[in-house]
Amino acid sequence: MPAMILADGALGQMMEPVDFEEHKARVIPEKTWACNGHAGKRQHNIINSLYIEPEVLEKTVIDRFEKYKYIEENEVICDKYLCDDADIVVVAYGITARVARSAVRLARENGIKAGLFRCVTLYPFPNKELCEVADTAKKFLSVEMNMGQMVNDVKIAINCKVPVEHFGRTGGMVPTVDEIYEQLVRMSK
Q1: What are the counts of helices (DSSP H) followed by strands (DSSP E) for the chain?
Q2: Beta strands 139-144 and 164-168: pairing type?
Q3: DSSP, res 84
Q4: CB 83 within 8 A of CB 140
Q5: Rounded CA gap, 9 and 75, in Å?
Q6: Phi then psi dihedrals of residue 58, to 5 deg
Q7: Are 166 and 144 in contact, with CB atoms under 8 Å apart?
Q8: pTM above the 0.70 mark?
Q9: Of the four listed, 34, 73, 92, 186, which is most buried by Cβ atoms within 10 Å?
Q10: Which domains does the chain have, with CATH numbers?
């Protein structure tokens, strides 16, 4: 499956120790689908996105939806931090999630039952996992480095069970621990 890494400048500049698991050699399946220039040694692979015949187009669409369903069921990755008893759950990804984790910890130290739902994959969005958190949470705070592109995703995922608010910075400004903490204090009242 194709993948896109959602990285920002802050993540690109970070350095920290990494422990790698022991590498286990594995057999990589042949990439018969790839267009990689075999100089006529095999059949040509043609990439096509234009399907004139309605039956062919319909089959293609159905096949892609089945593939997406598989990905949705098997490839969604998220991380829940202190969400089990949280009244307010921060939803974030990337560097913002790193900062939000510290703000959640600070909120806990000051008696606010906050948690963090960190999206590792954004597409497909972790709808099912977030909806489960909404069964016990009272409010959500979407913290982003934009004007709120994820807010509606959160609302849809939780079926608007509880209020969802947005806090964001733009222009490369990273929300601070104190700023997120202030939002949690405000929402806890």
Answers
A1: 6, 5
A2: parallel
A3: T
A4: no
A5: 25
A6: -60, -45
A7: yes
A8: yes
A9: 92
A10: 78-188 (3.40.50.920)
Q: Which of 146, 165, 134, 140 is nearest to 96 (CA)?
A: 146
Q: What token pair was written down for 49?
A: 């996105």
Cα Rg of the chain, angstroms: 21
Q: How far apart are CA 83 and CA 143, in angstroms?
A: 16
What token pair was written down for 147? 């004007």
Tokens read off for 1:
């499956």
Q: Specify the DSSP class assigned to residue 1.
A: -
* Cβ atoms 87, 135 nearer than 8 A: no
Rounded Cα gap, residues 168 and 145, in angstroms: 5
Q: For 10-63, write each residue's pLDDT tens digit.
A: 766 777 787 888 888 888 887 777 766 666 666 766 677 788 899 999 999 999
Q: What angle do CA 172, 149, 136 make, to 5 degrees?
A: 115
133 touches 117 (CB < 8 A): yes
